[in-house]
Amino acid sequence: MEINGSTNKNILKRQHGLFVSFCFVVGFIVGTGIFFLPGRVLYEAGGDIRLGVLAWIIGGVMISTCVYMFSIFAGQYEKVHGFVDYAEAIVGKNYGYLAGWFFAVMYQPAGYAIIAWITSGFTATLSGIDSNSEVYLPFRFFISSFFMVIAFCMNYLAPKIPVKFNVATTIIRMIPLVLMGTVGVVTGLILGSNDSTGLSLQTNVNSGNASLFAAISATAFAFNGWQAALAFNSEVKNSKKKLPIALLSGFFFVTIIYILYFIGIVIASPDGGNLIMMGGGERFAQGTHNAFANIFGQWASNILIAFMIISGLGILNACCLGMSRAMYSLGRRKLGPLPERMKQLDQMTNVPNNSMVIAVGISFLWLFVIFANTNWFAGWFGTFRFSLPDFYNFCFFALLIPLFLCSIIKHNKLHWFKRIVAPIMAITGAGFMYGTYWIGSRVHATVYTGTFLFLAIVGFLLRGKEGKKGSRDK
């Protein structure tokens, strides 16, 4: 099916089967976030491991309702970049463009920068650079930039390697998760934990229900990523059948692994190690390293940290692969800046290189936002910390609600459960996750809303004359 009369030379090939699609879903979700977010979740939960587990379960259940709805959408539509397809077909062209602009400018480039930054933290720890050192933050900024350039070059010059690399690193990054999720839990139960179930942090500003909501919102980044796999719907063989299976099976598989890993790493943390890990900030990598060393020994811990770095490069590669489709999907619709250039595919590699270059350029701007939040730039934002993961998850859940509402009207031929019950469940899930950010911090939620609206206005100013006239798929 063509979009705006595009020719075959600008159409991505269908080449991926069910296993690769499953690896895309799992690979996008299981990034580097899970290796530092247990500390933040436990911190927000006031050091109560039971409350932390509850936060992971609630977060997983709420987001799973959204995943299920997208599995229904994936069985109905398959054009270019799934999320944009669904938003355009169900809500309308303007909303579809907003969704595409969000992925092209906010979601995927920001995620690319975040993953590079997290991976650089583990690299610094493995290199023996203390987080209190003066060179720590400049080192991480340099290494983050280096990783981003390496992933870009691999995707730009040899696009067949990234797909295979994604499958391989997806398997590799499961090793430390499964090991800690099993050995850590068993060891803690047999030998006894450090009274992890009774941990309490005086530094936690949240209490009661606010503490649980803050912990739940923290899990959102770890579960994040499945939506990026939708960008490949036009490249999956028999996408309407295989992509829904990959979405659901991949998400539930990851949810189980996450809960086990969270329990295992909290129990495994040595006395005082949790204080480092739970505090988050710049010391999350050292806290994770301490937990692994406590169970597996120093050398084994170093090897596992190396695995995490490889995992980070794997998800960074996958993100570059995914975000290269963002501006391309708008260009195929004759929307956005320079649509004719954005929709072009390299004749040799069949990759939207122009779209990739723009996405990587935007990601460096987001990397600077991350760096500006560190102590190196103390005073730039005052005491306010602009959390990039919270920002785009907050915006994403807000975007889902109109989509699910309109699907009730649009899909009048579906079974009553898929048409009415499933959307209501998904609206509840997305609304709940969106609301946790307001409950956790109204100041942050207000700033995130303002930032999103500003970038959305910029996007519509760059929408293009042909896009404003609109055109139907041919």
Polypeptide structure, described:
Helix 3 (49-74) crosses helix 8 (208-223), helix 5 crosses helix 6 (136-157) and helix 5 packs across helix 11. The chain is globular and about 55 Å long. Mean pLDDT is 77; it is low at 1-8, 193-208 and 467-474. With 474 residues, it is mostly helical. The chain has one domain: Amino acid/polyamine transporter I. The protein has helices at 18-29, 37-44, 49-74, 82-90, 93-126, 136-157, 160-191, 208-223, 239-268, 273-279, 284-296, 298-323, 326-332, 339-342, 353-372, 388-410, 416-440, 442-461, 465-469.
From N to C, what is the helix and strand string?
A: HHHHHHHHHHHHHHHHHHH
Largest sheet: none
Q: What number of domains?
A: 1
Number of strands: 0
Quaternary state reads single chain
| Strand-pairing-aware structural class | mainly alpha
**Nearest-integer average pLDDT:** 77
Show the helix and strand layout.
Elements: H1 18-29, H2 37-44, H3 49-74, H4 82-90, H5 93-126, H6 136-157, H7 160-191, H8 208-223, H9 239-268, H10 273-279, H11 284-296, H12 298-323, H13 326-332, H14 339-342, H15 353-372, H16 388-410, H17 416-440, H18 442-461, H19 465-469
Task: Identify the notable features of this structure and list them briefly.
Amino acid/polyamine transporter I; 474 residues; globular; mainly alpha; 19 helices; 0% strand
In short:
With 474 residues, the protein is an all-alpha fold. It has helices at 18-29, 37-44, 49-74, 82-90, 93-126, 136-157, 160-191, 208-223, 239-268, 273-279, 284-296, 298-323, 326-332, 339-342, 353-372, 388-410, 416-440, 442-461, 465-469.
